[in-house]
Amino acid sequence: MRALKARRPEVLYFNGFFDPRFSIFPQLLWRVRFWGPTTRLLAPRGEFGEGALSRRSAKKRAFIALYRALRLHRGLYWHASSEVEAGDIRRLWGGDARIVIRQNETQLPVSALEPEPVGETLRAVFLGRLVEHKGLHIALAALADVPVPVELDVYGPEEDPAYVERCKTIATALPDTIRVRFHGSVDPDHSRAALEGHELLLMPTAGENFGHVIAEALSVSCAVMCTTRTPWTETLESGGGWALDRSQSAWEDALRRYAELSTGERDASRTRAGEAYAEWRARPTQPHVLELVRSEIIAEAGSR
Question: What integer pLDDT is reported at residue 37 of this predicted model?
Answer without folding.
Answer: 83
